[in-house]
Design goal:
Layout (H helix, E strand, L loop, with lengths): L1 E6 L3 H10 L4 E4 L9 E6 L4 H15 L1 E6 L2 E6 L3 E7 L2 E6 L4 E4 L3 H8 L4 E3 L4 E4 L3 E6 L5 E5 L4 E4 L1 H10 L3
Antiparallel strand pairs: 1-3, 2-3, 4-5, 6-7, 6-10, 7-8, 9-10, 11-12, 12-13
């Protein structure tokens, strides 16, 4: 058995990840020498690979990064970003809860910074969070149409389709 100690406040997120990855686990509410605000989780040794995936997803959910703005820096959760859009030199980060944040950085620089976190460039003006894609539809002229989890519609232009497919192993 593998034992994990986790915050009760964040337990629902972890339970969702364990459930989605079909990991069998047991919750232990009272462990010796542990404060009341934590819970123990026991997972079968045979599910170590699944557990690694879950831990990676949780790390992603908690990952924060500072981005430069016009008047300073803002700290954003990477998982809250749906896509980043460029309007000339104006860069807008579209996030959960219809929130938008203006970023003072060039799009190609953001592309390089965010690539390890499953972001990919889909056109001259857009970078998308691959984990926020709900549906991909093949369009005319070898373009792809994306529907994101927030119902936003984006298009992968022809010159970016090959790289996009490679990122998704399609």
């Amino acid at each position: 058995m593998i034992k994990i100690i986790w915050s009760k406040d964040e337990l629902s997120t972890l339970e969702e990840q364990l459930h989605n990855n079909h990991v069998n686990y047991v919750l232990i509410n009272h462990l010796d020498n542990l404060p009341d605000h934590v819970v123990g989780i026991e997972i079968d040794d045979e599910k170590v690979d699944d557990l690694k995936k879950v831990i990676e997803m949780i790390e992603y959910e908690k990952m924060q990064m500072f981005f430069p703005t016009l008047d300073g820096f803002v700290q954003l959760y990477i998982s809250n970003i749906y896509y980043i859009e460029a309007f000339g030199e104006d860069i807008v980060c579209h996030m959960r809860n219809l929130e938008q944040q203006h970023i003072k950085k060039l799009l190609y620089q953001l592309e390089m910074i965010l690539e390890p976190y499953h972001f990919v460039r889909i056109s001259k003006s857009f970078i998308v969070n691959l984990r926020q894609i709900k549906y991909i539809k093949v369009g005319l002229n070898a373009k792809l149409h994306l529907t994101l989890n927030n119902q936003s519609q984006l298009e992968v232009t022809r010159s970016f389709v090959k790289k996009f497919k490679k990122q998704l192993d399609l």
